[in-house]
Amino acid sequence: MGRLTGGDPSLLRRINSAVVLHALRGADAHTFTDLTRITGLSRPTVEGVVEGLMEGGLVVESAPEEGEARRQGRPARRFRFRAEAGHLLGIEIGPHRVAALLSGLDGRIIGAGSREVSETAPADERLDRVRTVVADVLRRAGVARSNLRAVGVGTPGIVEADGTVRLGTALPGWTGLALGDRLRRSFRCPVIVENDANAAAVAEHWKGAATDSDDIVFVLAGLSPGAGSLIGGRLHRGFGGAAGEIGALHLLGRGVTPEHLLSTTDEPLHPLDEQAVTEVFALARKGDARAQAAVERFIQRLVHDVGALVLAIDPELVVIGGWAAGLDGVLPPLREELARFCLRPPRVVLSLLGEAAVATGALRLALDHVEEQLFAVDGTVTARR
Amino acid sequence: MGRLTGGDPSLLRRINSAVVLHALRGADAHTFTDLTRITGLSRPTVEGVVEGLMEGGLVVESAPEEGEARRQGRPARRFRFRAEAGHLLGIEIGPHRVAALLSGLDGRIIGAGSREVSETAPADERLDRVRTVVADVLRRAGVARSNLRAVGVGTPGIVEADGTVRLGTALPGWTGLALGDRLRRSFRCPVIVENDANAAAVAEHWKGAATDSDDIVFVLAGLSPGAGSLIGGRLHRGFGGAAGEIGALHLLGRGVTPEHLLSTTDEPLHPLDEQAVTEVFALARKGDARAQAAVERFIQRLVHDVGALVLAIDPELVVIGGWAAGLDGVLPPLREELARFCLRPPRVVLSLLGEAAVATGALRLALDHVEEQLFAVDGTVTARR
């Protein structure tokens, strides 16, 4: 705290730069006069800071507006944030597909691509597929790899801070994989790896079903469900990055394994066999009693899993995503049971981003990383929307 | 952010006061020289600030140390924080007892008292009992009621920010009770009301089994368990104050009610009948098969509840408190099951504070409130411990 009163001039310069950059990104500030008014800084300070940002390539002078040029006198100089000064990738590496989204520094998506991959593919093959998708997306958008400022990745499993997959049973060869290091060979910029449900939670909060709440639980529903939560707008990863990994909940004091949940025979379903699962749901809709019982079991399990998350965390909003979200009849029983048993039931909605949620969240995490560098000053000032 | 550069002199004065007060409370700073060194402030600033704190009654000049007085020249002036400048109460209002702890501004306990109360007592009677206990504690410690700076209260139920009990089924007449308002009639200082398990979590972190961790779940085990959690050292109350209220978890997709869990007959146990519960546990130890089965059910339920909290939140440490914590055989099966089913099992320990946990946490919350006023400056600077 003592430092706050010390008056470090370089710290002040950085704070002022962050303030001005933030105002320029915010849209309606384009002239020195605008910036002076919005930031509360003096005109000479604003001019000096803008000069520095232009040298750094983050700000550019733009043409005066039509109307203004025609007015009397010299038009005011106008500036804009250069979103194209850097690019970001959000990548999903899932059991069945890899996908990538590309954006500029403003987070607006300017490229996308995906490829299917077998759930049995070894890690090397899966990473090859990632490289192919990324190369394709960059080529089509005409963006040089060297222009990437950060890459975010969402993938199943418990992910360490350095991007190593501590435990990831959903993908072959995933547990123990130094995924961050492997990807850093392909990219010269920072690579942030995050659990897929966590990434999806961030995505729904950014531009999905949860933009109006800072306290959410996102459930990636499936045969082995995972969840991600935001508390006060911040991702809650848990002490060891395992928060929301509720796959084993039903095993605590119960007998049913997930593979048997939706099975209509004595044979378990493969946990990733979405095709078989979809067939069971279709059969149930047609009135097949055995399939209906299986669907009932599946929904009970989902209710129980979501209920546990809600009772433990007490979010304002629950967002249901993942493949189960596309299946009929999941929301009504969920809402009904939560209303019955939760002391303060949350709202329950379906994901708006659907399949794009994980890659979108990964992109947002990459953007967060870059914005921290652009806007944060020793953790004391963080300018986010 | 612009304000940071504006140089508000009164803001600076407040920051400096907080810094100096914090250093004085910290123990080893007693002289102007100490304070100048530790805070990084100039000697004249430190002198001015100490002067102001003495006027405010928070700091007092103390006698020079023995050795120093004998040295050559005038001994350096010494100062100390006046913990006795104000007092705090931590109160537990539970189903069977009310209890109160009294401390000075340093949080050191200087008085304690408790009384039994019937679980069927109406709200007015319970509050009367609270007033009796408080009057008794204050009188014995010789502390005037007017010297109280804040009162913390821990009680079962979901508690609103203003101290109203939104839902509290454990105590008669508790749901809807404006508990904060009722108690503010007895005290002229701020009254902070908190859920009992939340208060206990704060207590174990302050001076119990969780002083070495900032990411904990405290489980108030019993027939209707509740939990409180700290995330990054901060109490996680949930969006509606209901986080950790996992009493209904077993009902989501299950059939057993808590009252039947430990029953050895077809008659349910009263959820608060600790005596009957203790007898069941005693019978089980003597080899009674039916009691053993009941205890087994109870432990399975606890494992499941704690498992849900752990999977959702991923704490570093789980602290088991409440009456069940005193019963044999709870920890080993808990640890074993969590190790089997959690991707990253937490440490599991018993409460160190036992019966005192809720009142201790309530006291800490009162202390937090006062420290925020003493040390915080518009939420930008918070100096704790």
From TrEMBL, chains A, B:
Q: Name one GO biological process term.
A: regulation of DNA-templated transcription
Q: Which residues form the HTH iclR-type domain?
A: 20-60
User: Which GO terms fall under molecular function for this chain's record?
Assistant: DNA binding
Q: Which InterPro entries match?
A: ATPase_NBD, ROK, Tscrpt_reg_IclR_N, WH-like_DNA-bd_sf, WH_DNA-bd_sf
According to the lineage, what is the superkingdom?
Answer: Bacteria
State the SUPFAM superfamilies in the record: Actin-like ATPase domain (SSF53067), Winged helix' DNA-binding domain (SSF46785)
Q: Which family does it belong to?
A: Belongs to the ROK (NagC/XylR) family.
* PANTHER family noted in UniProt: BIFUNCTIONAL UDP-N-ACETYLGLUCOSAMINE 2-EPIMERASE_N-ACETYLMANNOSAMINE KINASE, ROK (REPRESSOR, ORF, KINASE) FAMILY
User: Which protein is depicted?
Assistant: Transcriptional regulator
Species of origin: Streptomyces vietnamensis
